[in-house]
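During the no-cost extension, the postdoctoral fellow (Dr. R.K.) reprocessed legacy sequence entries with the updated structure-token encoder. One reprocessed record is reproduced below for audit purposes.
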Amino acid sequence: MIKIELPKPTVTITQREQLVKEGDIEIPSIYGFIDFHQIPRDKGGIFMFFNKNDELLFVGKARKIRQRIKKHFEDNVSPMIKHRDEVYKISVCIVEEAMDREIYETYAINTLKSKYNIDKAFFR
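Re-encoded structure tokens follow.
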């Protein structure tokens, strides 16, 4: 049997209820998150959306992780379209190899029982 272990998250950001002021600078939020800049722009990886109860809502992968996460909040065809307001925490694992991303995504969906991934779920 092959043993797969998910990589530890490189970045985890949580939603903030209001703007944070640092000195005289107001930090604007992007979809309720003010730490989007911590997510790498040109790296590939997998991402996981969690709710306030730390339940896994959705797992995805991308060659350019920040743009893909933003798409889930903007796109009209995203599987998360009706559930965007549930997302409280986003964890990102940097994984450069495309095949590794595919394996980790499918593994996370099925072992952690992601709520809104229906296309790769074997446990339903």
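The first strand starts at residue 11 and ends at 14. The two ends are 22 Å apart (CA to CA). The remaining legacy entries will be reprocessed before the final report is submitted.
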